[in-house]
Amino acid sequence: MVGLKIAAVAALSSAVLAAPQGTTYSPGDWKSKIKNVVVLVEENRSFDTFAGGLSYNPAIDGLLHHNYCNSMNASDPAQMDDVCAGPRANDVAPDDPNHSISGVNMQIFSTYHPDEMQVDEFHEAENMHPRAEAINYYTPDQVRVFNTMAENFVLFDRWFASVPGPTNPNRAYITSGTSHGHGQNDNAFNVYGLSQKSIFQQLSENNITWMNYQNSTTGPGLGFNPDAAFYSWTATSGANATNIAPLDQFYADAKAGTLPQFTYINPECCSYQSFHPPSPITLG
Ligand SMILES: *[C@@H]1O[C@H](CO)[C@@H](O)[C@H](O)[C@H]1NC(C)=O
Ligand SMILES: *[C@@H]1O[C@H](CO)[C@@H](O)[C@H](O)[C@H]1NC(C)=O
Ligand SMILES: *[C@@H]1O[C@H](CO)[C@@H](O)[C@H](O)[C@H]1NC(C)=O
Ligand SMILES: *[C@@H]1O[C@H](CO)[C@@H](O)[C@H](O)[C@H]1NC(C)=O
Ligand SMILES: *[C@@H]1O[C@H](CO)[C@@H](O)[C@H](O)[C@H]1NC(C)=O
Ligand SMILES: *[C@@H]1O[C@H](CO)[C@@H](O)[C@H](O)[C@H]1NC(C)=O
């Protein structure tokens, strides 16, 4: 079964410059030095789960300096049976919490249909023990590549989900600023069904080269389409044939120094290098 999980985004520029102390750069100085922008999208992990254990800078708003606990029963905070976050997230998450919009409502609001007055902390009514895994976090050693990139470049410690729901609507937000009303991974995403202008179209219109490399096992029940294939323009312009390529091609192009100006990478879905349970976090 294909799990449907919200996208977490790691947007990684290949040339983010750190100015030596005392030097002032204007945007023009560093912009001209950026040759390639590479965006890698992964499935949802919260900031606290993924980066909450990073320790290279005490200013990171993670979990190291908090004792973060929720009561087991959202309706009864006095109940002393707490679930607390700890540095014990598993490389392969043993559970995949329901992340439909209504499932997330239940986790956040303790009801499938929240009204404004019922805001609660992360909870899921049923079967809390396995779900408690979701508030645990990784140690820097478990996410070494990410830790190294964060330490040497830039880390944002406020992460937001455009749609508190599954993958494709969130990926549509990333690539076009809207899901066009879609709240589920419905069939429109499989058939070039979205009509809005995407970043891919905009790049082409501005003569900026781009590729959508992908390792998806595209097809109903098999995985997600690469994001460029959500959009009608991609098919009508012919970009479906020229600008979408397998992930292996990314490795070859990177090695040969022939990456386009803008690279957008979709992992497979959902059990290998996508971060979606049961993908091991170390492969992402
Ligand atoms: C995202 O991941 C966090 C941490 O595992 C979890 O609490 C949350 O329910 C997930 N949200 C969605 C929409 O999948
Ligand atoms: C949670 O607490 C409420 C209010 O005390 C109670 O009615 C409910 O049965 C409890 N749920 C569980 C799963 O213990
Ligand atoms: C998630 O929960 C909602 C609300 O109960 C339900 O309609 C949906 O079928 C569930 N999805 C999965 C994948 O279990
Ligand atoms: C893109 O290239 C075409 C063909 O060279 C040119 O006509 C067009 O003006 C260019 N567009 C932009 C936005 O630079
Ligand atoms: C994608 O491009 C190929 C080659 O141009 C074309 O034959 C095919 O029909 C296109 N696919 C879709 C779904 O439009
Ligand atoms: C693509 O994903 C599959 C699993 O779905 C994996 O076996 C394969 O090695 C991946 N390819 C690359 C180039 O990462």
Can you give the helix content as a percent range?
10-25%
Q: Per the principal axes of the C-alpha atoms, what is the gross shape?
A: globular
Q: What characterizes the major β-sheet?
A: 5 strands, mixed
User: What class do helices, strands and sheet pairing give?
Assistant: alpha/beta
Low-confidence stretches: 1-19, 117-127
Total strands: 7
Order of helices and strands: EHEHEEHHHHHEHHEHE
Count, helices: 10
Strand numbers in spatial order across the main sheet: 1-2-7-5-6
Strand content: 5-15%
Counting structural domains, the number is 2
- Name the average pLDDT: 83
How would you characterize this protein structure?
The chain is α/β, with parallel strands linked by helices and 284 residues long. It has two domains: 167 residues, no CATH class; 94 residues, no CATH class. Helix content is 24%, strand content 12%. It has ten helices and seven strands. It has a five-stranded mixed β-sheet. A two-stranded antiparallel sheet has the order 3-4. The longest helix is centred in the middle third of the chain and has 10 residues. The structure holds 2-acetamido-2-deoxy-beta-D-glucopyranose (6 copies). One 2-acetamido-2-deoxy-beta-D-glucopyranose binds next to helix 10.
